[in-house]
Amino acid sequence: MTTRPDCTFCAIAEGGASARVVLDEPDVLAFLDTKPLFHGHVLVVPRAHVETLDRLPEQLHAPFLGAVQRVQRAVEVGMQAGGSLHIVNNTVSQSVPHLHYHVIPRTKGDGLRFWLGPRHPYASDDEADLVLDRILSALPEPGW
Fold it and tell me: C-alpha angle with apex 105: 107 to 17, nearest 5 degrees?
């Protein structure tokens, strides 16, 4: 397992920094966010230093996603939430350059105005098709 000495989440995973641990497994760790959006906001991280989701090794896909699913259930049940918001930032807006998956409890009327905007609609079907073609031409095969 590769870690970086200058990484906050690696330090937590190695026990060199404290955290309120929710889940502790050989490949994955989950802990309470220190600046939660709502109480029960949990970060799920691979123990190995991986900066972005696209760099997560294939052998960690199942352990990581499985941990996220278990944490989601625990957060929703434990916090009596109606659901949850899941966020992963890749590079842009990533406060710590180590993959971290946010599981945030949500309840109806909690006041969060999660805003994905401004929206930029396609000017035409042709423009949407051009964008689709660009993405399809860059889409890697499974196991890349």
Answer: 155
